[in-house]
User: Fold MCTP2 protein from Erythrocercus mccallii.
Amino acid sequence: KNANPQWREQFDFHYFSDRKDILDIEVWRKDNKKHEELLGTCHVDITALPTKQTNCLELPLEKHPGSLLMLIAVAPCTGVSISDLCVCPLGDPIERHQISQRYCLKNSFRDIRDIGFLQVKVLKAVDLMAADFSGKSDPFCVLELGNDMLQTHTVYKNLNPEWNKVFTFPIKDIHDVLEVTVFDEDGDKPPDFLGKVAIPLLSV
Assistant:
């Protein structure tokens, strides 16, 4: 019951230059648990924003009254990466030695916020559930750690997909849990759930 809401929420997205350049925003009104109404949309061209600074934007809603006030900062992506197995970070012995020195016991208190990072190699899945009428699935894998989320590409018509990707996450809280979820891509519809595993960092 507010025409001038203040959310004061912050969201972090990992933006890679080879991905979609437009940030899509939707505003919804909720009457109850069952009824929702779209109040408007707006779009931000990320490539047009100056980097390494906070941009204050007032965005008018398309085809609807009202506007959104947002602060958007585009900064270099540190610590997070997606790569193939053949160019895997930490594959170089010299780099691995530098990392081990950076996080050795004597350097533990140099930067309290720099806990470390997690590298995950997503190789393949085996004997997935068939989600399509053809007896196959179009699986992709989503990895979540804290508020960081990365995903693989989709392997179409396959119950034994091979992704062979390497994901690197900065660790912000040693008590976080790595959640790995497999979905079936379903066109314009929401993806179908195929399975999930949760791995506490403290168990690694």
About this structure: The two ends are 47 Å apart (CA to CA). The chain is about 5% helix and 40% strand. The mean pLDDT is 85.
